[in-house]
Fold:
Amino acid sequence: MSAPSQDRATESAPVIPEFPTDRPLAAIYGRNARSVIERGFKVIARQNWAVLVSGFFEPVLYLLAMGLGLGALVGEVSGPGGSSIPYTAYIAPALLATSAMNGAIYDSTWNVFFKLRFARVYHAMLQTSLGPMDVALGEIFLALFRGFLYACGFMAVMLVMGLVTSPWAILMVPVALLIAVGFASVGMAVTSYLKSFQQMDVINFVMLPMFLFSATLYPIEVFPEVIQWFIKAMPLWHGVELMRHLAVGFVSGATLGHALYFVAMTVFGVWFTTVRLRALFLR
Structure:
């Protein structure tokens, strides 16, 4: 082959991006999580938008059935700080936290499970300049986006029903994002260990009791003290309490403590997911 032909062949050959190695975290982070996010939004726009929207309605139906139906029988209950509030206003912030959790968990578990075990999308991604942390951050962001949509939609329902009475309630949407990213990061890490649809049922087995027992629909004081301590260790309870504090404007040190719980949960989840993906694909 002549020299010009060799030059043309070299120019037309695909360029394989090199993974940078001269900076911190180079072995796991290629600084290109946006590529994972862009791909996720294209899939949502073309295929998954109906699935994305459908998960919003479950907490709304709970609010209408329990808040308006049972609420007419219950009347008022004791809220944060001992203030008396209608039962509908009591469960609405809890269901907002649940909505953010549902959006994040569904996206970071079932969606990730399919990409990991069947479509093998992550195998392909990690053959490029993307690192495990790029994949983790990208997928967690997509789960966060789903939780954000659910939170905004549920917040709109609360506004229409007149359940937003405090200026502090404006912080409920960013707090919903904090709750969503905490659940998404841990959810993706846990999913990386599951290998069958039967094992995936464990997620629903955990989620339903956590929803029912995290003081979402009734005060935690109805339980024996030993069970109360167990409930307070679960993340959804912290999300529920944090939302209730903001809904009525009762901001205290406990409010900050609930927020820091999710900050720690997020940091742990991102680290855990990154380490797990590296162990799976970069042996």
